[in-house]
Write a structure and sequence with these properties.
The complex is a heterodimer.
Chain A (H helix, E strand, L loop, with lengths): L10 H5 L1 H11 L4 E2 L2 H4 L16 E3 L4 H13 L3 E5 L15 E5 L6 E5 L4 E4 L5 H8 L4 E2 L12 H7 L6 H4 L2 H4 E7 L5 E5 L10 H5 L8 E8 L1 E2 L3 E9 L2 H13 L6 E6 H11 L9 E9 L1 H17 L4 E4 L3 H12 L1 H8 L2 E4 L2 E2 L5 H15 L3 E6 L4 E8 L6 H18 L18 H4 L2 H14 L17 H5 L17
Helix pairs in contact in A: 10-12, 11-14, 15-16
Chain B lengths: L7 H13 L4 E4 L15 E4 L6 E5 L4 E5 L4 H9 L3 E2 L8 H4 L6 H6 L7 H4 L6 E8 L4 E5 L11 H4 L8 E9 L1 E2 L3 E8 L3 H12 L5 E7 L1 H6 L6 E8 L1 H14 L6 E5 H12 L11 E7 L4 H11 L2 E6 L4 E6 L7 H11 L2 E7 L2 H6 L8 H14 L15
Parallel strand pairs in B: 1-2
Antiparallel strand pairs in B: 3-4, 4-8, 5-9, 6-7, 6-8, 10-12, 10-13, 11-12, 14-16, 14-17, 15-16
Helix pairs in contact in B: 11-12
The chains are: A alpha+beta, B alpha+beta.
Chain lengths: 497, 398
C-alpha cells in the first residue's frame, strides 16, 4: 500500500531506546512494554492497512505519571502518540518508529455519577457504551453512539469528536462533553470546563474535541448524560429512486420534525444487508430509509403518522411502522450490520466518511456510479441522511495486485467530490493519516497555517502525534514570523516535515 | 483602507494597515456589548455593521450563512418566516445596556446563549463554519456548512468566547432549527432557591424534555409580575406532546408545589425577560454578574453572596446560571462572588454590566489558573502577535 509519508525517523532516538525505556520505567514502573512480540498488537489501529511498530509502549495509571512522562519526553525531544482503544478508522493512533505510544487504557474508572447535575465524570479509557451502562439503571444514557461504541473509549471519542446515528438531534461528542482534564506536552495539567456550562473566554474545549491527539492528553472527561426517551419507534420506507428518498428527508425536516435517527442505504447495501440478516428489506428498492422517532408515546405516535404521510406523498414503494421494540431492532439490524454484511460479499472493503449537503445526495450517488466504472470497483452506500454523513464502502480484494491502490484512489475521488459539492472530507472518522494529504482540497495554505498555529500554542515542538492531520508541519518559529506587505503574509515553502 | 469595511477584503486591508502601523483596533458591530469588558483605550474602532447580508439560507438543509455584521434581529425575522430559529436564543442587551441583540458575529464571538442552552446547546454548538481575519491580517476559514465535520481543528467553535481578541469574524455559517409548534410554562410558586433547584433537577432528569428551567426569587419575581417566588419550566414541541408532558411533569413536581400553566405570548415574553435578565435590570447603576456553576451549586453561591452584601439574583439553566445584581461600589462584589464560585469547585463569573471604573479595577472575565492563562496568551500570540485586536477587552489585572 502507498503508505503516506511520515516524519523522518530520528535514528538517534532509536539508538537511545534502552535509555528511554529505563527513564520511562522510573516514572511508570510496571507499565513499559519494549519486547518486539508485546509491541506487535500496537502496530496499527482500526486502519489496519498501515502498520508501524512503536519505539515502545507506556501504560500509565495516574495523572502524575502522564504528566511526568510527557515532561520527560518534552525535555528529551521524544515524540508521543496517544492511543485509546485503537479503533480509529483514520490511523489517528498509528505509531511512530521513533515515538512512544502512550496507551490510556488503564484509565478505566467511572469516577463520579451526578444525576442531579446530569453529568458523569469518567477516565478516558472507559468505553463509550460503558458510560451508558453506568447510568442506565436510573434511566439515563450518554447520547453519542458511534458504531464502535462497545469498544471505543471516551478519550478516543474526545480526540476524534465521534458521532453516531443520533447526531442531528443529540449532537456529536463536542456537544456532549462539558469538561476535560488535560495534560500538555510540557507535563502541565490544565482543566477546561467541568460540571458548569460554557468556558470563560476562548473555547479551548472546542479545540480539544476533535484534535486527534495533537494538542494534549486527556486524563478525565465530564460528559452530559440525558434521560432516555420514553419510547422509540421506527418506520422503514422504500423508494424507487434516491431522489425520492432525498425529497422525503427534506420534507420531513421542512415539516419541523427532527428525528432521533434517519438512515439511508442504497441498493447494493440493502441487498448485502438483507443477505446477511434477512429482516425483509425490499431488495428492489433503490433507497431505503429508516426514520426513528423518540420521545413521549403521544409525540412518537403523532410524528409517525406525519412521517408516513410525507413518505406516501413522495411515492414510497413500501412504508412499515414498527409495532414492537423487536421489530424496531430488526429494522436497524441490517443497517447496523451493513459493514460486516458488505464484508461477506467482498474479501475487503474500504470505508469512507465524507459529509455532503443532503440535497446533493442524488448527484453524489450518480457521480459515484460513474467513478465505480472508472476504477472498476463496486461501491455500497450507507448514509446518515439526517446530517449528510456518507459512508461509501468500496469493495476490493487486497490479494489482487493493484486493487488496494485503486480502492484508495477511488476513495480519494469520492472525498474530493464531497468537498466539491459543498461538503467535507470527514464527518466522524477523523483526518488521521488517511485523509491528511487531501486537506489542501478543502483548506488553503493560510487556513491550514491558522490551524497549525493552534498546534503551536499547545505543542510548539510538534512532539505530540506528529504526521497526523496536517500534510506539512511548518515550524512554529517560521509560522510566527510576520512579513507584511500589502496585507498578505507570504509563507516560505518549507519541505514536508 | 477603510475603517467601515463592507467586504472581507476591506477587513483584511484594515487589519493589515493596523499591523503595519502598530495601531490597535476595537471591533464594533451594533455596539450592543460595547459596555462589556475592560474599557477600551484610544484604539480606532473598526465598524463592522456594514458587513451585512445573508449569503446562504437553505431551510431544508437547516443551514444559514451570513456576513458577521448582519443583525441577529434580521436573521431571526428571516428564519421566522420559514418556521425556524436560532435555537440558542441569542440574548438581547436591551434591558441591561439599552442596546439590543447586536450582530451575528457579536452573538457568536461572545458565545452568549439564552435559556434553551440546557437543551439545545450554546451559541458555539450552532456554529458550523467561520471565515475570519486574524490579527496577522490574513483571511482564513475553518469548519464548513455541514453538521458532521471533523476535518481539522474546530476553530469555528474555538473562536466563540474570544470576544474579537483573536480574529475578526467576517462570515459565519450556523445551524438553524425548526421552531417549536407550541410552548408552555409550568409555574411552581413560593419555593426557596434550594427547593426550586431540586424541583428543576427533577424536571431536567425526567423524560419531559425541558427547554427552559429558571427560578425567580421573590424580588426578581415581583418585577416579572409574580406575587411570590416563581420556579419556571418551559416545555416546547408538538401540541399533543407538550400537553402530555405538562400533565406528567405537574404530577412529578406535586410534592414541591401545585403547578400553574402559562401559554402563548405570555409564556414567550416571560422567557425573553429571563433571557435578557430584565427582572434585575433596575436600578440601572447596579453591577450585574453572570455566574456559571454546576446547577446544584447555584443556590449556595447566591446564598454566600447575599450573606456578604445586598444582592438580587435570578437563576437560569436549572440553577447553573446565576445572575447577580449588586451595588457597583468597591469591587462590585467581585471577591465575594468569585470566592463563592471557587468554593463550589468550578465555574466562572463575568461582570456583564458595571461602570467603567469598576471594569478598570476588577477583572471582568474570570481569572484563569496560571497554566491555562499562559496557554491563552500563547494562542493570542499565535493569532494576534502584535495585540492589534480588542487589546483591552479581555485583559486581566491592570
Amino acid at each position: 500500500m502507498s503508505h503516506p509519508e511520515m516524519p523522518p525517523v530520528d535514528e538517534a532516538v532509536i539508538a537511545r531506546r534502552g535509555e528511554i525505556a529505563a527513564a520511562l520505567r522510573r516514572i511508570v514502573p510496571n507499565g513499559v512494554i519494549d519486547s518486539a512480540v508485546a509491541l506487535k498488537p500496537y502496530e496499527s489501529d482500526g486502519l489496519t492497512a498501515y502498520r508501524t511498530p512503536p519505539l515502545l509502549v507506556v501504560l500509565p495509571e495516574t495523572v502524575a505519571q502522564v504528566s511526568a512522562l510527557l515532561a520527560w519526553c518534552h525535555a528529551h525531544d521524544v515524540k508521543v502518540v496517544p492511543r485509546g482503544a485503537g479503533t480509529s478508522l483514520s490511523g489517528g493512533a498509528l505509531p511512530l518508529a521513533d515515538g512512544v505510544l502512550l496507551s490510556m487504557m488503564k484509565f478505566n474508572r467511572v469516577k463520579e455519577i451526578d444525576f442531579d447535575n446530569r453529568v458523569a465524570v469518567v477516565e478516558p479509557g472507559v468505553t463509550n457504551l460503558g458510560i451508558t451502562r453506568a447510568v442506565e439503571h436510573a434511566g439515563f444514557y450518554y447520547a453519542p453512539d458511534p458504531s464502535s461504541q462497545i469498544a471505543c473509549s471516551i478519550g478516543g471519542n474526545v480526540a476524534e469528536n465521534s458521532g453516531g446515528v443520533h447526531c442531528l438531534k443529540y449532537g456529536l461528542t463536542t456537544n456532549n462533553v462539558l469538561g476535560v482534564q488535560l495534560v500538555l506536552m510540557t507535563g502541565e495539567v490544565v482543566r477546561l470546563g467541568g460540571k458548569h456550562l460554557d468556558s470563560e473566554g476562548v473555547d479551548l474545549l472546542a479545540l480539544i474535541v476533535g484534535s486527534e491527539g495533537l494538542l494534549g492528553v486527556v486524563t478525565e472527561v465530564t460528559v452530559r448524560i440525558l434521560r432516555a426517551p420514553e419510547t422509540a419507534r421506527a418506520v422503514l420506507v422504500a423508494f424507487a429512486s434516491s431522489e425520492a428518498a432525498g425529497e422525503c428527508v427534506a420534507d420531513i425536516i421542512a415539516a419541523g420534525i427532527i428525528p432521533g435517527g434517519m438512515e439511508m442505504m442504497d441498493n447494493p447495501a440493502i441487498n448485502a444487508a438483507e443477505d446477511f440478516v434477512n429482516v425483509g428489506y425490499p431488495r428492489d428498492a433503490e433507497a431505503l430509509l429508516i426514520v426513528e422517532l423518540d420521545g413521549p408515546d403521544v409525540e412518537v405516535d403523532h410524528l409517525l403518522a406525519r412521517v408516513e404521510a410525507i413518505a406516501r406523498a413522495r411515492g414510497a414503494m413500501e412504508c412499515r411502522v414498527s409495532t414492537s421494540d423487536a421489530e424496531r431492532m430488526a429494522f436497524w439490524a441490517g443497517r447496523k450490520a451493513a459493514f460486516p454484511a458488505v464484508g461477506r460479499i467482498s474479501p475487503d472493503y474500504y470505508c469512507m466518511d465524507g459529509t455532503i449537503p443532503r440535497r446533493q445526495l442524488p448527484l453524489v450517488l450518480a457521480r459515484m456510479r460513474e467513478l465505480s466504472k472508472v476504477h472498476g470497483l463496486r461501491v455500497a452506500n450507507v448514509f446518515h441522511a439526517g446530517d449528510g454523513n456518507l459512508h461509501p464502502l468500496i469493495l476490493y480484494d487486497a490479494n489482487v495486485p493493484g486493487e488496494l491502490d485503486r480502492a484508495e484512489s477511488f476513495g480519494a475521488d469520492i472525498l474530493r467530490l464531497c468537498v466539491e459539492v459543498g461538503g467535507v472530507l470527514t464527518g466522524e472518522h477523523g483526518v488521521g493519516i488517511e485523509k491528511r494529504d487531501l486537506m489542501p482540497t478543502m483548506f488553503s495554505e493560510v487556513d491550514l497555517a491558522h490551524q497549525i498555529r493552534v498546534k503551536c500554542a499547545f505543542d510548539e515542538k510538534h512532539l505530540l502525534n506528529p504526521g497526523k492531520v496536517f500534510p506539512e508541519l511548518h515550524r512554529c518559529a517560521e509560522l510566527g514570523r510576520m512579513h507584511v506587505s500589502g496585507g498578505r503574509v507570504p509563507f516560505p515553502d518549507i519541505p514536508r516535515f | 483602507m477603510t475603517l467601515t469595511p463592507s467586504s472581507a477584503t476591506d477587513v483584511v486591508a484594515a487589519v493589515a494597515e493596523a499591523v503595519a502601523t502598530r495601531a490597535p483596533l476595537v471591533l464594533r458591530g451594533l455596539s450592543s456589548k460595547a459596555g462589556i469588558g475592560r474599557p477600551d483605550g484610544n484604539e480606532r474602532p473598526l465598524f463592522l455593521a456594514g458587513l451585512t447580508g445573508v449569503t446562504l439560507y437553505e431551510p431544508e438543509e437547516l443551514v444559514l450563512s451570513a456576513r458577521a455584521g448582519t443583525p441577529v434581529a434580521e436573521i431571526e425575522a428571516l428564519l421566522d418566516a420559514r418556521g425556524q430559529e436560532l435555537a440558542f436564543e441569542p440574548m438581547s442587551f436591551a434591558a441591561l445596556h439599552g442596546t439590543g441583540q447586536g450582530t451575528l458575529g457579536g452573538a457568536v464571538m461572545a458565545n452568549q446563549s439564552g435559556p434553551r442552552r440546557i437543551k439545545m446547546g450554546a451559541a458555539r454548538d450552532h456554529v458550523l463554519g467561520v471565515e475570519a481575519v486574524s490579527g496577522r491580517g490574513e483571511l482564513f476559514k475553518a469548519g464548513g456548512r455541514v453538521v458532521k465535520n471533523v476535518t481539522g481543528y474546530d476553530l469555528a467553535k474555538g473562536l466563540c468566547g474570544s470576544w474579537g481578541t483573536l480574529a475578526v469574524a467576517t462570515e459565519l455559517t450556523v445551524k438553524v432549527l425548526p421552531k417549536a409548534e407550541t410552548a408552555a410554562t409550568l409555574i411552581l410558586s413560593g419555593l426557596e432557591p434550594a427547593a426550586a433547584v431540586k424541583a428543576l433537577s427533577a424536571a431536567l432528569g425526567s423524560p419531559a424534555d425541558v427547554s427552559g428551567a429558571a427560578h425567580l426569587p421573590a424580588a426578581a419575581a415581583a418585577r416579572a409580575g409574580f406575587p411570590t417566588a416563581a420556579t419556571l419550566i418551559r416545555l416546547e414541541g408538538f401540541e399533543p406532546s407538550v400537553a402530555a408532558r405538562f400533565e406528567r411533569l405537574a404530577a412529578l413536581l406535586k410534592p414541591f408545589a401545585p403547578a400553574d400553566r402559562l401559554d402563548g405570548e405570555a409564556s414567550a415574553a416571560l422567557w425573553r425577560a429571563i433571557r435578557d435578565v430584565a427582572p434585575l435590570a433596575e436600578p440601572a447603576d447596579r453591577a450585574i454578574w453572570r455566574v456559571s456553576v454546576a446547577p446544584t451549586a447555584g443556590p449556595s453561591v447566591a446564598a454566600a453572596v447575599t450573606a456578604s452584601r445586598p444582592a438580587d439574583v435570578l437563576f437560569d439553566w436549572g440553577g447553573g446560571l446565576v445572575w447577580i445584581a449588586t451595588e457597583a461600589a468597591g469591587d462590585g462584589g467581585a471577591a465575594a462572588i468569585r470566592s463563592a464560585v471557587a468554593a463550589t469547585g468550578g465555574g466562572h463569573a463575568t461582570l456583564i454590566r458595571g461602570p467603567a471604573a469598576l471594569r478598570e479595577s476588577v477583572p471582568v472575565f474570570q481569572p484563569q489558573p496560571a497554566a491555562l492563562a499562559a496557554l491563552g496568551r500563547r494562542l493570542k500570540a499565535e493569532f494576534d502577535p502584535l495585540g492589534i485586536l480588542n487589546p483591552a477587552r479581555m485583559a486581566g489585572d491592570a
